[in-house]
């Protein structure tokens, strides 16, 4: 090995080890820091303390999505915004999830730095959210004590000007339904695209006339185990410019009993009619809904997927009165699914068979039908043959493979 004048090898370092990370552009560093944060948030915090540049980049990831699993954590962070208000604008997603028992000993009327709302208007926990100017995702699962305060956020003018996804669930005593009227203005939010509402109730009032919004960006609406009046639903669905996905689910025996919901699936299809030009997928998993007449869905010109519980929800239950032998299926329907066993109504089974045999007229683009096999075989040989002759793929959930 050759030596230099100082007697050291040529490959020996001549000075301090250079900071190789400092040479990388911000977008590469962000990618590296994101991987570090997935492994350990603590390690990413250590990285943020190395220098000012790393602090700014790491902070944008540390506070991108915040999960408040205790109200103490929520309040402590809210007060930290007074010292570092920039952090509020870094937050893109917030998840609030804590029980009623943890709220009882907290003072919620303290002022929050950066909020223009008076402390008397609503609680400090809600007010802190209003300072997060770039928030895109808000997931609420908190006691109904905060119902009014969070609802005030949606009354406008909108502090959450970039909100795209929101989930609302308020924990009520005895597992009662919470009143969606307190948060009704969420439906008027101009940028919101996905809204998921869990265990809420809404009576016939819906929007008052003077409050009605105009052309919102809502694309997906999910109502999970809710008690929703169909007229109110019709009101709040008049304003999305292009609703694409609607989901409504309920358990077979709701507790407490439903008060505001209709018992007729046709009422909810009618409520969706204002979005008939844009809806691409409808899922109504609501076993207690009945069908008294065949559904009229020819105006749902964009609908490609329809999922319901029973065949009679689509065709209407058998009646002594004469009626048409087909249902008004959406003209562009591609997938039809029934969550429950077919064949409980012989007259309806005949109508389903007729609709498949005349698929060229009733639903020329129908490609797939998904059904459930019960304890006893409920699919007739004629129905299976009709699907085969019409080149309609029949998927039977729960059926053993045939030899």
Please explain how this structure is put together.
- With 403 residues, this protein is of the alpha/beta class.
- α1 (26-39) runs antiparallel to α2 and α8 runs parallel beside α9.
- α13 links the parallel β14 and β15 (393-397).
- It is built from 13 helices and 15 strands.
- Among the domains are: 23-62; 290-403.
- It is elongated.
- The strands form two sheets. It has a twelve-stranded parallel sheet.
- Residues 1-9 and 112-122 have low confidence and may be disordered.
- The N and C termini lie far apart (77 Å).
- It comes from Anthostomella pinea.
- Residues 22-68 form the F-box domain.
- InterPro entries: F-box-like_dom_sf, F-box_dom, LRR_dom_sf.
- Percent of residues in helices comes to 25-40%
Number of strands: 15
Question: Quick one: biggest sheet?
Answer: 12 strands, parallel
The structural class is alpha/beta
- Unreliable stretches (pLDDT < 50, length at least 5) are 1-9, 112-122
Mean pLDDT: 81
**Topology order in helix (H) and strand (E) letters:** HHHEHHEHEHEEEEEEHEHEEHEHHEHE
What characteristic shape results from the CA principal axes? elongated
């Amino acid at each position: 090995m050759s030596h230099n004048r100082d007697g050291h090898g040529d490959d020996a370092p001549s000075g301090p080890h250079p900071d190789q990370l400092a040479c990388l552009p911000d977008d590469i560093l962000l990618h590296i820091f994101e991987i570090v944060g997935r492994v350990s948030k603590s390690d990413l915090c250590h990285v943020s303390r190395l220098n000012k540049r790393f602090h700014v980049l790491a902070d944008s990831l540390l506070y991108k999505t915040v999960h408040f699993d205790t109200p103490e954590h929520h309040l402590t962070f809210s007060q930290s915004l007074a010292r570092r208000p920039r952090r509020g604008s870094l937050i893109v997603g917030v998840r609030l999830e804590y029980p009623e028992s943890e709220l009882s000993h907290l003072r919620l009327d303290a002022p929050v730095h950066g909020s223009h709302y008076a402390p008397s208007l609503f609680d400090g926990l809600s007010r802190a959210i209003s300072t997060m100017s770039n928030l895109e995702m808000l997931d609420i699962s908190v006691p109904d004590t905060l119902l009014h305060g969070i609802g005030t956020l949606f009354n406008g003018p909108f502090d959450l000007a970039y909100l795209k996804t929101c989930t609302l669930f308020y924990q009520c005593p005895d597992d009662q339904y919470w009143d969606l009227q307190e948060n009704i203005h969420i439906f008027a939010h101009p940028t919101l695209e996905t809204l998921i509402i869990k265990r809420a109730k809404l009576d016939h009032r819906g929007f008052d006339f003077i409050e009605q919004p105009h052309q919102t960006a809502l694309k997906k609406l999910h109502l999970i185990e809710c008690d929703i009046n169909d007229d109110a639903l019709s009101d709040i669905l008049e304003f999305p410019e292009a609703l694409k996905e609607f989901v409504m689910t309920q358990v077979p025996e709701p507790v407490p009993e439903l008060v505001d919901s209709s018992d007729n699936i046709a009422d909810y299809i009618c409520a969706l009619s204002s979005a008939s030009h844009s809806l691409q997928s409808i899922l109504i998993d609501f076993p207690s809904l009945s069908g008294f007449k065949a559904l009229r869905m020819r105006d749902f010109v964009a609908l490609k997927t329809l999922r319901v519980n029973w065949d009679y929800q689509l065709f209407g239950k058998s009646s002594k009165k004469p009626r048409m032998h087909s249902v008004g299926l959406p003209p562009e329907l591609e997938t039809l699914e029934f969550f429950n066993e077919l064949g409980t109504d012989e007259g309806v089974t005949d109508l389903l068979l007729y609709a498949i045999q005349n698929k060229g007229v009733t639903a020329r683009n129908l490609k797939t039908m998904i059904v459930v096999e019960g304890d006893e075989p409920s699919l007739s040989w004629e129905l299976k043959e009709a699907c085969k002759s019409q080149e309609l793929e029949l998927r039977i959930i729960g059926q053993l493979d045939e030899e």
